[in-house]
Specification:
single chain; 96 residues; alpha+beta; 4-stranded antiparallel beta sheet; globular
Amino acid sequence: MFAVVVTFRIVPEKMQTFLPLMLENARASRTNEKGCHQFDVATDAARPDEVFLYELYTDRAAFDAHLESAHFRAFDAETSSMIAEKTVATYAQVDQ
């Protein structure tokens, strides 16, 4: 498995617009992408401008396919001006 964690800091007063678009992107990923096994969207009231994602893919190729998908590209274009900061970290499963 290939895990992806993303933290967004959203521009003040854009969260109400950003969050429904993020949730739709997550739903489309889970529904339409064979290699997407999990796509969680989380927030914390103590950090109202932050959105945390946990995504789980079959492998790096499945994640790369996600980045090329029409729904992700549309989401990325529509939300880019709403994002003040974004960090992405990826992790490959260690064989046991």
